[in-house]
Amino acid sequence: MRDIRLSLAEIVGEDYVSNREEEAYFYARDPGLMPAHEPDYVIVPKTTEEIQKIVRLANKEKVPIVPMGAGMALTGLVIPIKGGIVIDMKRMNKIVEMNEKARYVIVEGGTSHGALKSYLEKNYPRLRHSIPDSPATATIAANVMIHGQGRLTQQYGFNSDMVSGLEIVLPSGEICKIGSCSISKEWFSKGAPLPDLSGLFLGWFGATGIITKVALKLYPRKKMRDVEIFVTDRDDLVPDIVYELTHTEMAEDIVIFSQPKPLIFKDNHHITIFITGDTDEELEFKRKMIWNALDGFIKSKDGGFMSVPPVMKPTLLEMPQQSVSRFADVKRGGGFEYSGPIILVEKYPECSRKVEELSSKYDLGYSGMARIIGRGHCMMYGFAFTFNRADPDMMDRVRKALHEASDYVLEIGGVFWKATVDEQRLAIERMDPNTRNLMKMIKNKLDPNGIMNPGNWEVN
Amino acid sequence: MKYEEIVHRCFRCGYCKFTSDYYDFNCPSYRKFFFESYAPGGRMWLIRAWLNDEIKNSNHLQEILFSCATCANCVEHCVFTFSDDLVNIFIAAREEMVNKGIIPPPVRDYLKNINISGNPYKEPAEERGKWADGTAIQLYDDQEYLFYIGCVGSYDERAKKIARAVGNILIQAGVSMGILGNRELCDGNEVRTLGEMGLFQYLAEQNTTLFKELGVKKIITLDPHAFNAFNKDYPGLEGEIEIYHYTQILAPLIQSKKIPLKEYKAAITYHDPCYLGRHNEEYEASRTILASIPGVELIEMDQNRENAFCCGGGGGNFFTDILGGGNDSPNRIRVRQALDTGVQIIAVACPQCAKTLDDAVKTEELEDKLEVLDVAEIVSRALA
Amino acid sequence: MYQLKFDENLCKTCPTGDCLVKCQYMDLDKNEAIEEMVKISKGEDSFVLHDCVTCYGCEEYCKRGNHPFYLITERRQEKGILTTPRAITKQWINIGEPRGKFKLGDITKKILSCGFMPELVQLTRGRLFDDVMPSYVFGQEFFCNVVYIHFANTSIIKERLPMVIDNFKKLGVEEVVCMHDECYGAFASLAPAYGMEVPFKPIHYFEYLYNRLIELKNEIKPLNVTVAYQRPCSSRLSSDKHHFVADIMQLIGIDLVERTYQNENALCCGDILGMLTGYDLRYDVQRRNIDDIVEHSAEYCVFNCSACQNALATKVAKRGIKPIHIIDLCKMAIGEK
To answer: Between chains, do A280 and C318 touch, taking CB under 8 Å as contact?
Structure first.
């Protein structure tokens, strides 16, 4: 072990490797509920070449590697289950290259969403990216790695669908270019028209390779942005409401939430619709299309657009939405985890009733939060529970509630998003055997020594 | 430990590390070390672990806790309702360590020197007022203001120049003030931020008694650290004595042209001191002064006002240097940020910032490109 | 139980049928108006029960004090006829629920009541109110609950308003300056219409402002600007106080423009219309209203109600008109803020 530490120090310098108790403690945990597993080392590299050397060393010594962004997935994906080396990517935070006319940007493996947002606002105000509601420290590479969703997901799909090229360090230590950049200087596509190799890496949580550069598609940023909230007390109407809304093709983001507190939200489902426009005319036209699309529901008194209180608008419109993080302190205990399966929109009523049932059964504070993906092709439904980190019993009840949610979701046709290790196991068990075998073959071929984030997507 | 009931509430989301617009990391220790343990979230989780006996006090834990510059960027940017108490929590943890006697040697030495010599330089107390020799600055004898200098301004070579510059300008402007000279005691701001509450209480009591005995009604401080201590942590002064930083006195005088100025052509950027800016929300006084000098072009760094990047001197680091040097030490980063604006002068309003940034200019080998000057020194150059 | 004091005979013998003849949203002549009101009184169905958009106008148009709009609301609730969608109604009922989080200032015999709108507490700062402040109340416990007539629900008013009146009574106050026009309407119009006793004197904040401005007459510097007034629906419940708007404007040197949609013909802010019927009606009403203000070259649009302000401030600002609350305008006149 001492040799490894010295070798790692030779790669990144003494200052950026640690096997000290304090780093081990912190990097063994995330703000969710997964039990702690300590790393043997934490390393903070600066370059792709340094990562190459770390991976080669890890292979040689058969030491596990776990790459990490901000660690805010909350499902324990950056916790080193088998120990080893946690690679904190956040020092690799440059904006590498911009192609304004082709609307893409290349960033490093540890560049945060916040940094990109700020960079674009300052330098390219007509461009934006699909920013998630995780804290601004969340990294772009990790977010696409887990198929995250953001403000542009309703229009353009998962954030990983917006990748237009990757640079990967393979488990063998080789640097591999994925997409158009493997042939051309430009990074305009992550796969097409070649065989799409990005699927060997996206969604694998680092189990098949480490993203050291990611090209992200950018989209037009309009000058104005506004929000409407359509409220209904009929959860069974939500899918139809979403269908009508998505038909208009006028909305930016559509998120739905239901929670018992504060009182203004009690007993209702809130379909939050964001619109953007460069002119008043454009914005007002979109607003009218959206209102008119739901006219039927208004006339039948089944739902209506609420008056958004002036204090609420800025909170809803900010990106990322800081209030999402504040959910963690509802029980004055800094804790929050959610199971957020991807599932058909038509299952909204089942999911909503389930989260209420679980919160009642386990006496928990909850929020049911859904984000529409594509034109209603599916949604992410988050069974979110907040907990007090100093209350082990509450934490245990949240674990149970999430566990039940996971089981339920599988039964009604959902697929786990950023699956915990337990959910991965359930998913693999449920999976089509040939698909499972294909995954196994890929993993074994790419990572024969099993050093890449072991315990994740392992088929046994 | 004080604030113990809050430490478990940190979500380690990392908003505390950033500027308001997420442009860059703004926590000086995180920016330097890049391990999460050196960020506010890291400290919160580690303090909790230490209180729960999950980890032991070690040299590294002490280093983590004492490298915090108490710059309050986290207080400014944390999104939770307990954000106001973040720096207080870190100080409370330091207090725990001080009480147990397990602290890094430089911290121990600093506290010892204050205790014994009344200043961190181990210089004789009788020489505390010598910096004013040869100037027209009088001792305090019932003037309108007490001009309070502090340890750094009294003993540090670089800072003494600033003290003289400020004193001279105040005199030029006709401000009625005097200094305590040898009678001056340490304000204790750093003693408090390092967690030695007993010594701080003692200093606060001594100073409060002295000020009241002398009938002091208004104080002008040289150093924002003293300004902060008197303003916020001296309960005996509240409502009784008005506290000002010298820039707050100079700004209206310069604006109303009480101090005649000639043209001084210079491109200047202003570095907000944490203890004047974020801690006490005074962002404009120095800017008003600089903007009033004919010929001065004031250019802002990206990270300014509540997003100013700390020079790294706070939290005792000016004396203990737990934060340490290196290519990414905060003062060097800050100097590079200043260089990027194209200015020739970095204006400061704190003698600790002055020295820290001065050192960085030298280490970065930018002496022919950048000069670090206190606001008063800049005004001195523009005196008619 | 509280019964609405309604006299069917007053409708039968009405010389004008003005309540519905003057309605800006439905088209009836005198005979139709009387016919529908009698139907409604008798508990029969009427298209009015479905088409009324809750602008409160008929409370003012009826010069016989017979409370046509309160009756419409009663019948709607009895028949289960909704105005706004259920979810919106539920939301508003939840928002108004007392929750023990009220604020009391230094209570004396005369207090300011801010309902539960934080904007109103902000407005009470300054010289105009400093002879009553800091005697004030804030919270759902002091909320007049009248807004539920927009939502076809009077039972919640009958349940909560007596408790609210009791809360005031417990404080031993003699005079309550209502910082919102609707709150005044609750005590001066709705409570008496239902036979609820009000053991204190409600004062409309217009009246209070006017008298205060007279006291501070020497400090008033005429503002010399042109202003259009956005009259809220709630003003229809206190039409006897409406004249204060012109009186105050005159005191502070303001040219109150004569426009189409003013006094009895005023247009409401439109936000409720959106909840009830969707985009088009709200858009039309707001557009006509703002066009009217622009056509009459008003520099400012002055508001009496913060809900109106929320609905229209940004929209008037986009047309180059400055939105301002009447209290802020008065503050400007005495050189404050």
So the answer is: yes
